[in-house]
Design a protein that fits this description.
Layout: H1 3-10, H2 15-48, H3 62-79, H4 88-117, H5 129-136, H6 159-173, H7 179-199, H8 205-210, H9 216-229, H10 236-253, H11 261-278, H12 286-296, H13 298-319, H14 326-363
Helix pairs in contact: 1-2, 2-3, 2-11, 2-12, 2-13, 2-14, 3-6, 3-9, 3-11, 4-6, 4-14, 7-9, 9-11, 10-11, 13-14
């Protein structure tokens, strides 16, 4: 079931316009991540041809932060009436696994097969069985063979899903409480984790990863959802100002220290998402409709775009005139990745999700007071 269907089923009176705004936000977040990787790859092409490429000077990974704030908002907004109800935690987790796992596992398997059969195509070796298993199970592990030490799965962009899964499990763990109390407890848990990371100098891999300050950005989205449920709304001028301030802040502050990321990048991301979540519905113009479709496909775009860019790189190096500007190459990467994500979403992600949701509902009929589910996960950015 898609994010749009989830929200509309739970909140038919307000879900559609709200989702349209957030899907545009998702499209923006995904495109920024793709842009960053396209510009980086343009630098790789330049190096292989012995020329220079200046890049943009912007850390485009801020799209991940936008995804995390959106995720926190959607999970609470859609599941708000499920809190403090029997069995709601398992239903929530089941829906999230069905929504996130199939495409991620499919693309991870493709990476694994390529790495085993054609290892020369990968910049980093596949790694041990334990590392591969951890990649499938959303357990953070160090990536062996990387030029710079990093905690990344086999499908590198899945690092954001490791945070998403932490958030899902933590949120499910407090669902036995009413929603406001649950978010308050979740806040205490996340704040304690981040505090312990620095005061205790945590070095254990998983604990160090899961206590990163970036997890606080999920809480920002949670509180934004509570604000909307409480009736907060923004008029058009205020929403435009908030969105502009958010985008400006993201562009200006995306390169700060990791421990300050929730302030330097998370808060501007919150401003942008708040403009979408609390502001009026966007007009139904052709660019808006395309952005909404791209937002629907943002998870597919986030996870699949490195494969598209890597393929386009080899084509460019073989057939493109060396005099052609590499800005054109970066633009083609963004366009190709975006167009490729739409059929992946329509032909694989959406039908597989619907099939699995239908089978899960057929095996275990949910009680009448269960909610419909939850929205689409980034990242990072983002992958998603």
């Amino acid at each position: 079931m898609s994010a749009r269907q989830d929200i509309r089923k739970d909140t038919p009176s307000v879900g559609a316009p709200l989702l349209d705004n957030l899907q545009v936000c998702r499209a923006f977040a995904a495109i920024t991540v793709v842009t960053g990787h396209a510009l980086h790859d343009a630098g790789v092409v330049a190096a292989r041809r012995g020329i220079e490429f200046p890049g943009s000077g912007i850390d485009w990974t801020f799209g991940v932060d936008v995804f995390f704030v959106i995720s926190g908002f959607i999970m609470v907004y859609v599941s708000g009436k499920d809190f403090a109800k029997r069995g709601s935690a398992w239903t929530f987790l089941r829906r999230r696994l069905i929504r996130i796992v199939p495409l991620y596992w499919a693309l991870t398997t493709i990476m694994l097969i390529v790495g085993l059969l054609l290892p020369q195509l990968l910049a980093i070796p596949v790694g041990s069985f334990q590392y591969v298993a951890s990649s499938y199970l959303f357990i953070p592990e160090w990536r062996v063979g990387a030029p710079v030490p990093e905690i990344r799965p086999l499908l590198a962009l899945g690092w954001t899903l490791n945070y998403e899964m932490l958030f899902y499990v933590a949120l499910a763990g407090v669902m036995f409480l009413p929603v406001r109390r649950a978010i308050a407890v979740l806040t205490l848990l996340f704040a304690a984790a981040v505090t312990a990371r620095f005061t205790l100098d945590i070095q254990q891999t998983q604990l160090m990863f899961w206590s990163d300050p970036i997890i606080l950005e999920f809480l920002m989205g949670c509180y934004l959802a509570l604000a909307r449920q409480a009736g907060w709304r923004l008029p058009t001028p205020a929403a435009l100002v908030l969105a502009a301030a958010g985008i400006a802040g993201l562009l200006a502050n995306s390169g700060g220290a990791a421990e300050l990321r929730p302030l330097m990048v998370g808060l501007p991301a919150l401003l942008l998402v708040a403009a979408a979540a609390l502001g009026p519905t966007l007009p139904k113009l052709a660019p808006t409709r395309f952005a909404i479709l791209l937002g629907d496909a943002s998870y597919a775009l986030y996870l699949s775009h490195p494969l598209v860019i890597r393929t386009l790189r080899e084509v460019w190096l073989k057939f493109a005139d060396p005099a052609w500007p590499l800005w054109l190459y970066a633009l083609l990467c963004v366009a190709a990745a975006s167009l490729a994500a739409i059929p992946i979403y329509l032909l694989f992600e959406r039908p597989v999700t619907r099939l699995l949701q239908g089978k899960a509902q057929g095996k275990s009929e949910a009680p009448k007071d269960f909610g419909a589910g939850s929205g689409q996960a980034a990242t990072a950015s983002a992958g998603r």
